[in-house]
Amino acid sequence: MPSRMEYRKQTNQPHNASKHWLTTLLGVLASVVLFICALAQTTVLNERYMTNEIINSSVSSQIKSDVNSSLSSYGIDTNVINDQQTRKILKQVIHQVYEGKNVHISVDNIINDNESKLSETLSGYGVPSSVITQLPTGSINDQISSIINSRLNNDEIQELETGIKIARVSTLIGLVISVVILLLIVIRNLFSRTIIRDFRWITLIGGGIAAGILIMTKPVVQSYAQDFASFANVIHEISTNILKIGWQMVMVDIVVAVILFIISFFLRRRRS
């Protein structure tokens, strides 16, 4: 005949098993939300990260090429805007977008360099300085400003600003809620001594779902790039780098899961 302690263990097993899987399910949902929000906050919603990505993308050379090629009608063969000036303009734009401000591009340095280059070129041909000061260099300066602003300051930028504001708030809320839930699970499991049992499944299943999300993200990004046609190449380049970071996070999650399963296996063998 079973003892009272053995009888309690037998009757409590189904109840404990259901609690275990409910806790695991809640932990998996929290870990997936944490993964999505953390990835977004460290990449696409991070001004420093996006600044580095964009200034090293094709958009930088594209803007430089547009400005310099458009000035051929003025008979100027030299590069009016260089790589450093292009990067400076892009940094201004990105900062203003992430701050939610109206984009206003300052091209004063470019204008001054342009006037100096034009003056030096004409002086080399013997044109008097009195004539140079009367030349309509303002039209060239307006052309530079028009090209830059038409490329970067448009309706798509305003939509992007709104999206960044909403995404930042949403992901911040998601981060806080998911971290709180996981901490509560950790505290509960510390008292019940089931932290390894629960978190081995939380990390494994959560990592698998995160991997699935990354796989499904690619067609979504392609569709998004079509909506922002003028930034399609940049979106493709940056999304590829972001997905690489996402896969690194998934690999860390899977490695943690494997380690927890190994620890659980040895603990079971030790008890038996």
Set out the fold topology:
Layout: H1 4-42, H2 47-55, H3 58-70, H4 83-98, H5 108-124, H6 129-132, H7 137-152, H8 155-192, H9 195-227, H10 232-271
Helix pairs in contact: 1-8, 1-9, 2-4, 3-4, 3-7, 5-7, 9-10
Protein name: Cell division protein FtsX
Keywords: Membrane, Transmembrane, Transmembrane helix
Largest sheet: none
Cα-atom Rg, whole angstroms?
29 Å
Compute the number of structural domains.
2
Strand content is under 5%
Count up the helices: 10
Our measurement of the CA-to-CA distance between the termini, rounded to an integer number of angstroms, reads 24 Å
Helix content: over 70%
Low-confidence residue ranges: 4-13
Helix/strand/pairing category: mainly alpha
- What is the H/E order? HHHHHHHHHH
Shape: elongated
Provide the residue-averaged pLDDT. Answer: 78
| Tally of strands | 0
Keywords: Membrane, Transmembrane, Transmembrane helix
Transmembrane segments: 21-41, 166-187, 199-217, 245-267
Protein name: Cell division protein FtsX
What would you note in describing this structure?
By secondary structure, this protein is an all-alpha fold. The chain has two domains: 158 residues, no CATH class; 104 residues, no CATH class. 83% of the residues lie in helices and 0% in strands. The chain has ten helices and no strands. About 4% of the residues have low confidence.
